[in-house]
Amino acid sequence: MATPTQSTILCVDDDKVTLRVIERLLANNGYAALTAESGEQALQTMQKTKPDLILLDVMMPGMDGYEVCAKLQQDKDLSYIPVIFSTAREEEEDKARAFALGAVDYLVKPTPKDVLLQKVASHLKTKARWQDLGQTSTPRRPEAQAADFSQFKTFLSTRLSPTPKTRETLSALTPVQLYQQAAAVGVSATEMARYVADFLHLPYLPLFRPEEVALGILPPPFCKKNLVVALNDTGGGYAFALSNPFNWELIQLLKRWKGQSSATPKLLVTDPQNIMSLFEQEAVRDTENLRKSSMADIEEQLRKRYQAEVETIQTVGDAAEESEPVILLANQLIEDAYGMGASDIHIEPWENEVIVRYRVDGVLRIGHRFRPQSLIRPLVSRIKVMSDLDIVERRLPQDGRIVFKKFSGKGLDFDLRVATTPMNFGEKVVMRILDKNKAIISLSNLGFSPRHLQLYREKITTPYGMILHVGPTGSGKSTTLYSALKEIQTPEINIQTIEDPIEYTLPGINQMQIHREIGLTFQRALRSYLRQDPDVILVGEIRDRETAESAVEAALTGHLLLSTLHTNDAASTIVRLIEMGIEPFLVSASIILVCAQRLLRRLCPECRETYQPTEEEKQLVGVAPHADISLYRPKGCRTCNGIGYKGRVGVHEILVPDDAMRRSLGTSGITSEVIKRLAVENGGMTTLYWDAMEKVRAGLCSTEDTLSEVRKDEFDSRPPWMFEELGLERPHTLQ
């Protein structure tokens, strides 16, 4: 029998020798030890004597440790007893399954005595602390907390533009109903989590791996009830991932657990389903299957299967895409990319290996290297099957689309735009992830400065004219145009788009897909649209003179036309249209705004560090040499995967032609340099460079990354507002 000061430990193992050794070790260190040689015996013992902690062997005949732990969680009186699994296996999937079933830790045999004793003492201490916290009353919810949620509902209302019925539902929403009523207010649970993170300025965590969970910090039943888990932090310590930061009692409990009276612990917002999936029985069974199909195992299976000579592969390669390892590999590559927030996946055949690269925040990084090189054939064939492409045709490029929900066992709902191209060592595949949850972003969240946002919103509400977005591929042009359409969309206007391809379906907007093979080009579609009574027309891209002429005609005949061009800045766009053969007077009459843009990597707000810039850097960012200013640079933490950057932010250059510029366009041989000078000196235009440097001064971006994406202007292009806001001395030419 245990004395009042002793803790009782139940040891469960089918090996009698192991039981005796552990029993003696625990007794010699002041614990009362109980033993059981099977799962059935352990459950009977627990019903008679409620232990303080359980050491549970996993691999036992009959009822194994996993089943014992699962039954334990079904009993509310026993579910909070800490369980430490003990096994000879050391797989991350086993640790994830242990947490899903309610274990607080996972020891690998043979376990050193000091490690065992340290774990037992640590988890007993944690249990005692949770008991103390449970007996301590939670402070009364302050009025400020209720006001926070009220402000969040107002914030949500401005983002959603709700109908009267939806506004009524939103008004009655309570913190407890946050996700239960998400669909009723017109958003998914994932979108709701993003809105919460945005409003509270907390990091959003789209996905996390089960092996990232910090065992032994929070009791699994508590995690399941409150939808919160502790995650290991790369910087040391841990952070809490939760779905509802408006749960006042939970936040207070986490504060007291961390020993903080007022400071909020490090919080990450995630979709509640990400946490629930850790505990669902389906997830447990999936984990058991994943143990057999981890990336290392998949590679090994593929290596064995495709180690044959190239001639052999060529005879069976077309059917090999249906083999299980290739299916698992294709799915895993896509899921990994989505989990890390990648925008593109590149699968590249090199001479001796297959390289997989992910583009995260605009930068490509090697994710995997696979050998033998010959597995490129079955892998590409599998992706072609998923995207309904011709698996026999390897000589010509092909384009397709994958609806990943059809192939994902995890319920991930996003699409991929697929492009295959023949290379010298095989076909290369590039997949662009089209996340429906990120399709439409409010204009206010795209990085527009307040002065640019006001000007842009004013111009997109004009009844006619042409608005062009320009920049390289991947600079956010389509996203900005979609956001603009969403902002001006009302039942009173007819919006029609011509796209190639249609990346996102926009409710309430008429969208057309280009099909060149049957003659449905941008030009033909645009001419057809002019007879469809449109108010606003979006043309995916102006690529040739015919499309440009039709676009100008539409803009001059009472329609608002939005489109894109691939030029470097706003001024060169006007010159490009003239070079296409459009008459200068038509260009000057039709264009009302040109927006050049780029995407810069956003510094991680969790780990960015300040530093004092040199005089050269001060000159680059536009401040006086004697100015007292601090800039920011990347560091790296768990939130940003050690990179130092998390997400991207847009920088813009908005050119609005004035009368002087329109007259100058008739000058023979006018250059983009002249147009740019006129826009800055007469119109006060902020160039891409100075808009980017404004974000550097604000701590959103680093100087180094900005200079790698945006080129410095060749003349003093500082806009008038800079001299006023930064207290700079004006050059004589600007005074």
What do you see in this structure?
It is a single chain. The chain has 735 residues and is α/β, with parallel strands linked by helices. Helices cover 39% and strands 19% of the residues. The chain contains 28 helices and 23 strands. The strands form five sheets. It has a seven-stranded mixed sheet with strand order 17-16-18-19-15-20-23, with helices on both faces. It has a six-stranded antiparallel sheet with strand order 11-10-9-14-13-12, with helices on one face. A five-stranded parallel sheet has the order 2-1-3-4-5, with helices on both faces. Strand 3, helix 3 and strand 4 form a beta-alpha-beta unit. Helix 2 packs parallel to helix 3, helix 13 packs antiparallel against helix 15 and helix 21 packs across helix 25. It is elongated, with a radius of gyration of 31 Å. 37% of the residues are buried.
Strand-helix topology:
Elements lengths: L7 E5 L3 H13 L3 E5 L2 H10 L4 E5 L7 H9 L9 E5 L4 H9 L4 E4 L4 H23 L7 H18 L3 H8 L17 H12 L19 H7 L1 E5 L5 E5 L5 H11 L8 E3 L2 H5 L4 H12 L2 H11 L4 H7 L7 H16 L4 E6 L4 E7 L2 E8 L5 H11 L11 E6 L11 E9 L2 E9 L15 H10 L5 E6 L6 H12 L6 E5 L10 E4 L8 H8 L6 E4 L5 H12 L3 E6 L4 H10 L4 H7 E13 L5 E3 L3 H7 L9 E3 L11 E11 L3 H6 L7 H10 L6 H10 L5 H7 L10 H7 L9
Parallel strand pairs: 1-2, 1-3, 3-4, 4-5, 7-8, 15-19, 15-20, 16-17, 16-18, 18-19
Antiparallel strand pairs: 6-7, 9-10, 9-14, 10-11, 12-13, 13-14, 20-23, 21-22
Helix pairs in contact: 2-3, 4-12, 13-15, 15-16, 19-20, 20-22, 21-25
